[in-house]
Structure formats: C-alpha cells, structure tokens
Recover the amino acids of this structure.
C-alpha cells in the first residue's frame, strides 16, 4: 500500500479536469453540510469527462474532498456505474431483468453480442461500442429497454436495435470528420 | 421518451400533469402548482400533519407506512438540523413510476418537499435519483433553479420567514441504496450499506439529524393531499389506504403502461380491462403484484383489491406498484432464477444470510434450470430462502427470500418437471414469438 493511498494529500490548484468541471467541483464540495457528500456526484462527473476513473482522477477527487485515495476506492467499487477502466464511446446497456426478460430482453442482449461480436463488459476493437447486461433500469412498462450511455431506448426489437446501433455508428463517423 | 397511456377508469391525481409541459415552472403554476405550499405556510405545521394523517396516504416506496404518522415522529426540538430526503432511487424491478414523475412533473416533488420541510421544521431537502436517471436529474436541476429564481426556494419563501434549500443528485448504480438507511450512507459519500435501527431516521438520520425520508411518489402526492383535503383524499382510496397510486404494468399485458388508479382497485380488472388482458389472447400464468420482491400470485388469487392490507391478506405485498404479468409461456424456474440473479448481484454483502443465501440460491437454481437438479434441491431452495427471512439488517434479504419461497410453493410441479436431466420443458422460443410480433 503506497502512502498516497492511506494519507490525505494537501490541497493544490493543479487539476486534470477541464476548467468548467474544476469550477463545478469547487462549488460542489461547499454545497453539502458535509464535504464528503459530494463524492459520488464528483466521481460520476469525472467519469463523464474522462471516460473512466483513472488513478489521477481518483487522486484529485480524494485531495479535493480531503479523504484518502483508499477511501475513494472503497466507495467507488461499490457502485456498478463507476468504472476504473475505459469503455467504448457508446456503452450499450441491455436490461435483462424480469420485465425486460418477458419482452425479449435476454434475446436482445444475445443479438447485440452477435451483432457487435463482443460479450458482457467487452469493447469492440475500434473502441466504438461496449456491451453490458444490466439490472433493471426503470423502464419496465416500455420493455425491452436499453440505455446507451445515459440515453434510454424503449420497446426495442432486434431490428430496431440494429437501426439504433447503426445510428450511433453514423453519429460517431460524422463527429470524427 | 416513454409512452403515456390513458384509460377511463383512471383517477389522475399525481399523473394529472403528465404530458402537459409541467416541467416548465410557468406551466406548473398555470396548472395550479405551488398553491398548496402557499396554503401550508399560512396554516402551519400542525394543520399540515393533521391533513396528512387524515389522508391515509401511505408510503409509496413499498412499506406502506402512514406518511402523516412518519412526519409526526420527528422531534419538534432538535439540536441538529432536520432534513427531508426524497427517495427517487427507483430500482425495484417492475417499477418505473418515479421515472414519469421526474420527467413530467418535477415541481410536484419540489413542492411536496418544501411542504414536508414546513411540517417538521427542516430547512434542507435532498432529492436523490438513481444514477441511471441522469437525464431526469437535468430536468430536476432546471426545475430547482427555476424555483430559486422565482423565490419559491431559498430565503423568505412567499414573503414568509421560512427558508428552504434543495439539493438534487443521483446515485451511481446500486439497488441497495433505495433502502432508506443505505441511501443516507450514500448521500454521506459512503458505500450504501444499511444502518441498524433503532434509532430510526426520524430521530437519527442524515448527518445524525432527524430525517423524513419518503418515496418520490409519496412526496409528489403531498401537494395534492393539501389541495383536495385530507379527508376527501382518503375517500378516493379504500379503507386505511388513501388516494390513488401509480401502477406500472409490465410483462405480457396487451397494453403495458403506468396507470393511476384508486387504492383498492381490483387487480383482475386492472389486468383484463385497464391493461387490455393478456397479449395475443394467451392464458395468464402468474402475477407479481408489486415489484420483484413481492410473492407471486396465481390467476385464481388475483380477484383482490390493490391496497396494502388486501394484498397482504392474500399472502403477498402491494410493494412498489410494479405489476408484472406472466403468460403461459413463461418457465417459472427460469423466472425464479432471473429474480434471484438480481438479488445476488445487488446484495451489498454486509449481512451473511443475504450475501451467502442469494449466492447459493442462484447457484442451485442455475444448475436446476440447466437440467442438473435433484429432487432434494426443491426443498433445499425453500429451506435456504426461509432461513434468510428476518435475519438481515435491511429488507433486501427478505426481498430475495419471499418471492423464492412463493415460486417453490406455488409452482412445485414446474420444478419437478425439470428433474431427471431433462432440458427445460417450457420452450423458451415461445416467449420470443410474442416479442417479435
């Protein structure tokens, strides 16, 4: 265990985040009655910007909240949406829980596996798509449902799923030009 | 965007502003919003609590505890600040009602939260949404900013001396955090592990202060209770079960959707009339009446009123309002396995009976469904589940055990049909036929 894991690092002005996010974090830590309450939102917003929670991101968040890196890691490993490794540009999360299962969620997940050529928590070689089988996402009456990053897609069939993936692929292509 | 449904049998109260553009504050006010909080400021805490008690509004998260009584447990004098906590960590499989509230009527949650603050003397509220609802947080944050801008939040609300602040945030993916004490841990920046009770949140809650924690639908109902009047609100529902609730119908019904019906509404009628019966004219096999943790009901058991007491009498629970409809094509062993797989994934690991129990149930059911089950497994599954009941800090252990016990008890024949190395006798492709159609 390195010292940075178990000791609180003194505050500095250096940041790995964008100026806008750094400013948001400055405000966030003062918002709650307890500084530490900002931890989970900060982890989420950092992940949104960087794509995952890198060692540097974790270290800076620990320092901003004035807790140890170990403390931060202890918390982030609990939450299923937080990740310490990169995922694809589009993280395809297919719900297979009961309501979705009854409407073909499992088959939809297997369809995505075939279509993308990857399995649960894997990423396509071009880094475009990741696939994840997820638990209930709160869209039960509109099942089967999928979340791509934070966007919900309801009432899907294998055919409409293909169209959706194609749409994301095209969006990425356009954004890159 | 989720499709909205409508049926003449509905009594739209909480959902009255759905699809009306009420996420915009001007429209919310135009539709009668923020009138109840004005009234609450005028009439004071005792009046609010009396109205809430008279309304028979019971917690919509699933436990069904009377809201007015919960509020009255908060001590009047407290050295530590008091807090209002809105639980929008909607995660019970089968439940998607708060999703619509945050999407279509975020101000009703803000207004309810302010009223709760007035009632118990809290100056700060938190609206906690599940992590997956990021787009709804954006809507909620805008609604909160608009309420501040117009002077409905912050200091001197409506020219009174009352001040109230609201912070909203999301979680980051954890079913367990929907449990009240785990949610407080999460809000304090920790792992979502439940706390032992007593002390209850009303006495020692968030940051050690007295805390009212209510489900988002409960809080969104509060302005309506004051507008309609406690007694009149109570009359809309059934005995000791005031008002309406949002029922999320999913699975094999013809017209799935979120319907608002009076408490005590007949379940059979809900499925066959409101939701249009079973898709493709198939036969009903079972109904999970209130989210995945509630014991399954057989077709002959669904002629009951959907309120906390009547569903309880039928051996299940009203739960979170997630009505999951299963037709004849479903393999109940597979369904039981998928249910337990969820609880195994979500067990926080704090209490051994839940951590180990869900894991062994998943292992046994996986083997069983694959055709490698033994006759003694059937009783073992039930025995395992029964030994989890009441032996954990929080209700997750019970939530995993209760449906499992019911599956074995009510569908024993289906378990026996899986014995002897046979493949699953309930052809899976038949589920797909419906979906692709």
């Amino acid at each position: 265990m390195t010292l940075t894991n178990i000791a609180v690092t003194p505050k500095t002005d250096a940041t790995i985040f964008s100026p806008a996010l750094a400013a948001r974090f400055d405000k966030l830590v003062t918002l709650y009655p307890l500084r530490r309450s900002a931890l989970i939102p900060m982890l989420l917003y950092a992940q949104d910007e960087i794509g995952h929670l890198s060692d540097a991101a974790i270290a800076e968040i620990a320092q901003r909240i004035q807790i140890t890196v170990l403390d931060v890691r202890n918390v982030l490993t609990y939450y299923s949406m937080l990740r310490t490794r990169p995922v694809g540009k589009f993280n395809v999360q297919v719900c297979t829980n009961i309501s979705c299962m009854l409407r073909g969620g499992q088959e939809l997940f297997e369809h995505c596996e075939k279509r993308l050529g990857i399995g649960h928590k894997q990423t396509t070689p071009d880094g475009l798509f990741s696939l994840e089988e997820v638990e209930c996402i709160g869209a039960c009456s509109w099942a089967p449902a999928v979340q791509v990053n934070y966007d919900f897609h309801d009432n899907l069939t294998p055919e409409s799923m293909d169209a959706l993936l194609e749409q994301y692929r095209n969006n990425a292509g356009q954004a890159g030009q | 965007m989720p499709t909205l449904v409508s049926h003449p049998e509905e009594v739209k109260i909480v959902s009255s502003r759905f699809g009306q553009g009420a996420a915009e504050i001007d429209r919310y006010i135009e539709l009668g919003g923020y009138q109840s909080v004005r009234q609450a400021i005028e009439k004071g805490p005792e009046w609010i609590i009396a109205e809430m008690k008279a309304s028979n509004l019971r917690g919509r998260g699933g436990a069904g505890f009377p809201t007015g009584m919960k509020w009255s447990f908060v001590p009047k004098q407290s050295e530590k600040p008091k807090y209002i906590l809105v639980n929008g960590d909607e995660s019970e499989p089968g439940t998607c009602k708060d999703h619509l509230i945050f999407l279509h009527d975020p101000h009703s949650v803000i207004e309810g939260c302010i009223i709760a603050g007035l009632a118990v003397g809290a100056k700060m509220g938190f609206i906690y949404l599940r992590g997956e609802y990021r787009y709804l947080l954006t809507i909620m944050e805008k609604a909160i900013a608009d309420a501040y801008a117009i002077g409905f939040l912050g200091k001197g609300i409506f020219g009174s001396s009352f001040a109230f602040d609201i912070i909203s945030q999301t979680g980051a993916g954890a079913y367990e955090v929907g449990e009240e004490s785990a949610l407080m841990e999460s809000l304090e920046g920790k792992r979502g592990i439940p706390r032992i009770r007593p002390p209850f949140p009303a006495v020692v809650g968030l940051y050690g202060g007295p805390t009212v924690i209510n489900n988002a639908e409960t809080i969104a109902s509060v302005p309506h209770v004051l507008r309609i009047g406690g007694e009149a609100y109570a009359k809309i529902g059934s005995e000791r079960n005031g008002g309406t609730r949002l029922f999320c119908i999913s699975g094999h019904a013809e017209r799935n959707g979120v319907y608002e019906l009076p408490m005590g509404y007949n379940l059979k009628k809900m499925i066959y009339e409101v939701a249009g019966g079973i898709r493709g004219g198939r036969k009903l096999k079972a109904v999970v009446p209130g989210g995945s943790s509630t014991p399954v009901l057989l077709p002959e058991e669904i002629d009951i009123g959907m309120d906390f007491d009547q569903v309880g009498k039928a051996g299940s629970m009203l739960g979170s309002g997630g009505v999951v409809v299963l037709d004849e094509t479903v393999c109940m062993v597979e369904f039981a396995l998928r249910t337990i797989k969820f609880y195994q994934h979500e067990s926080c690991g704090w209490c051994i009976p839940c951590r180990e129990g869900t894991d062994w149930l998943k292992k046994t059911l996986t083997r069983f469904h694959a055709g490698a089950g033994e006759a003694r497994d059937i009783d073992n599954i039930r025995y395992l589940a029964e030994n989890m009941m009441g032996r954990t800090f929080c209700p997750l252990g019970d939530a995993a055990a209760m449906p499992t016990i019911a599956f074995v008890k009510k569908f024993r024949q289906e378990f026996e049909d899986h014995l002897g190395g046979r493949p699953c006798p309930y052809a899976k492709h038949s589920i797909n036929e419906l979906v692709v159609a």
About this structure: The first strand of chain B starts at residue 83 and ends at 88. Chain B has 18 helices and ten strands.
